[in-house]
Amino acid sequence: MTQAERIAIFEKLPVKRAVLKQILPAIASQVIMLIYNLADTYFVGRLNDPRQTAGMTAAASSLILITAIANLFGVGGGSVMGRFLGRRDSASARDTAAAAFYGALASSVALCAGYYALAGPILRLCGATPDIWDSAYGYAVWVMVIGGPAAVMSAMMANLIRAEGGANVASLGLSAGGVLNIVLDPLFTLPAFLGKGAVGAGMATAIANWAVFLFFLVYVTVRRGQGIIDLHPAHCRRGLVHLKSVLAVGFPSAVQYLLTAVAVSAQMHFVSRYDAAALAALGIVKKLDMVPLYCALGVSAGLLPLLSYTYAAGQHRRFREALGYGVTIAVGFSLLCVAAYELFAPFFVSLFIGDPLTQRYGAAFLRLMVIAMPMMSVCNPLIISFQAVGRVRESLVCSLLRKGVLDIPFLFIMDSVWPLYGCMLVQPMVDAISMAAALVCYRRIAGETKGDDRI
Predict the structure, then answer these.
(1) Where are the domains of the chain?
(2) What span, in angstroms and rounded, lies between the C-alpha atoms of 29 and 159?
(3) Rounded distance, CA 130 to CA 204, Å?
């Protein structure tokens, strides 16, 4: 996208149209990613073996580490790039993108190598008991170790491509990978084909992630010199001066996801003390919970470059209107999910597994956890808005409240008050507190810029 095209979208287009132009491709790609996440669980669930589903569930919390590294460089790089572009400094934006790319590449390789060395103790902490060990370990090795670097780089590059105005390209790459995963899932998972169960689902995901990374790599290579992103090492060397800003902005998001991994692992560990059916049910509910979550993440990802650009350009009224419209969309969709899940919880769980005990657990869990969805849909875009303007402290505080500081103490308390089922109320409690903190922080920031519009 040229500078003139960026100005037309980010500065001149009516706010609602600009927001939709940014968030709809991001939501579409999130929907495809959601579908392939659900497909993993669906096809493994067709085996009607709770141990296979429980194995995937135990390994799933480790996958959050991938998102943490991707956001460290992707959210941070996208925010810094957006602000440079808002100030018409294309050279610094280009250098920032290259530094973020190589930083993410090195970090992803280190993460996956470290995970391979420590996979045993990590999976045991996540609730991988001996009866589900083979499924958990096999799935984790394929997704985290073999496909992990590609997953990190795909998510990170999608953020950079959105920051330069390529929301449709980012959506296309992620969506194509999701479709490929859906096609491969039954081939690798079901007994009629390769019959590898949960391990086969991991193989399909790893192959799809590498396909997406290669697509983005070819895209930026072919367009070298035409767009902002240029991966020549010379740009990386010059961009090192901006890497501190990238890491500072991306750090709260990375910390939130790292602590999410800890919190989810703790919840899995608590639930695994009961039986495999309960753990399998939690895994299914976590996937259903992704429906409104991925909508909120799509809204947030689409808003980030627009918010960064408009803030740097001094268009603070446009910033506030764009954020408000995005939050309205996310909350509205989450409320629809609340109604559907509360009314039809047994039906939704039964789509993924036929085991009656797992279905009973899942329906009860879903009706409790669904309460958090509207609050989460407010909190995520607000945290992204703090990152968009470089407000590290506010972003970090809200991220820590949402994941890490409160989860584990609340798990002990709620599990003692209401064994097993009390664990499902922890997320609504945490999201209520973090949403309140995010609203207070946002009111302060909005008040500081209320009289400072250039439009």
Answers:
(1) 3-449
(2) 12
(3) 24
